[in-house]
Specification:
Length: 332
């Protein structure tokens, strides 16, 4: 018996009846010989961590672009915080932590430079719009590994795709990441906005902080425990109505007072048009797009259209790379 098989047997004995067992995964688009050591979702996690898209997250904005300070979140630290919250919940509910971790680490691979500002900008110019969750799936299926993709398990792809949007993930592990993403960005973006002097703790809606707590740590602790105790031994991930309302009220507060407020008007004015201008430039100068993207387009075989390939290239840029490309464009 291999080490992997021993681990799979241990899962069957210890995980919840509602957890996804590694041995019963729906598999991959391209079947592979199982590893002797790692279970399938462990392999998925490792492939995501070693991907180029994952490494680029350290140089992508979460909220504040080029902040003066070392402690503001990046897209990578946000991803790690989502992973930590997700694993805490999954562990307490005896769900598959490896599957949870793979989804959490991969959920934002397709995010644009410049955070919400960049995504909104690209969404305006790309035919059919741009949604980072769908782009994350494109990365793991069609862009990474020189166009071969990472060939992840179907459960991981489902969790990445449906961590936002109208649909919900099909697994409890995916649902854990879906709610953990909101817990993380609401509380950590509030923390960063307070650090930046844009808002203060006392300005937050008092009716909601009275429920959840008066600090980032208190609120995360309260919400995570609420979810765990309401979801124990149930085939769903449940947050109490009172806690959910308070969390979503704080989320709405962020959109009104931070993300799209006048307090970030300078950042929107400075960076809110860069991706759109880069998009139109590369549509007109398609020969300047790197071969690793344009290989999917030729005169005889068109796998993806030019618009989508240019969106792939631009959304994959880091903040500094996009800024430098934009400067080059303006200087020429």
């Amino acid at each position: 018996m291999t080490i992997r098989e021993e681990k799979e047997l241990a899962e069957e004995k210890t995980l919840s009846e509602f957890a996804v067992l590694s041995s019963r995964s729906l598999g991959r688009a391209v079947p592979e010989t199982p590893c002797d050591i790692r279970m399938c979702f462990q392999r998925d996690r490792d492939r995501i961590i070693h991907s180029k898209a994952f490494r680029r997250l350290m140089h992508k904005t979460q909220v504040f672009i080029s902040p003066e300070g070392d402690h503001f979140r990046t897209r990578l630290t946000h991803t790690l915080e989502v992973n930590q919250i997700s694993r805490t919940i999954a562990s307490a509910l005896r769900l598959n932590e490896n599957l949870t971790e793979a989804i959490a680490l991969g959920h934002d691979l397709g995010h644009t430079p410049f955070g919400h500002i960049g995504e909104a900008d690209l969404n305006k110019v790309v035919p059919g719009g741009f949604r980072h969750n769908e782009q994350s799936v494109r990365i793991v299926e069609k862009i990474e590994n020189k166009g071969k993709g990472l060939n992840l398990s179907r459960e991981v792809i489902d969790g990445i795709l449906n961590h936002r949007g109208a649909l919900s993930p099909k697994t409890l592990e995916g649902k854990v990441v879906q709610i953990s993403d909101k817990i993380a960005y609401v509380n950590h973006d509030i923390d960063d906005a307070i650090r930046a002097g844009i808002i203060s703790e006392i300005e937050l809606p008092i009716k909601d902080t009275e429920i959840l707590g008066h600090s980032c740590v208190e609120r995360i602790d309260y919400i995570v425990k609420d979810i765990i105790y309401n979801s124990l031994e149930k085939n769903d991930i449940i947050i109490s109505p009172e806690t959910k309302t308070a969390l979503y009220n704080l989320r709405e507060y962020l959109f009104e007072n931070v993300y799209f407020s006048g307090k970030l008007s300078h950042e929107r004015h400075t960076y809110g048009h860069i991706l759109g201008e880069l998009y139109y430039h590369y549509i007109s100068h398609f020969d300047e797009v790197p071969d690793e993207y344009t290989d999917r387009y030729s005169e005889t075989v068109i796998e993806d259209d030019k618009e989508r390939i240019v969106a792939d290239f631009i959304s994959g840029m880091t903040d500094r790379f996009a800024i430098n490309k934009f400067k080059e464009l303006k200087e020429n």
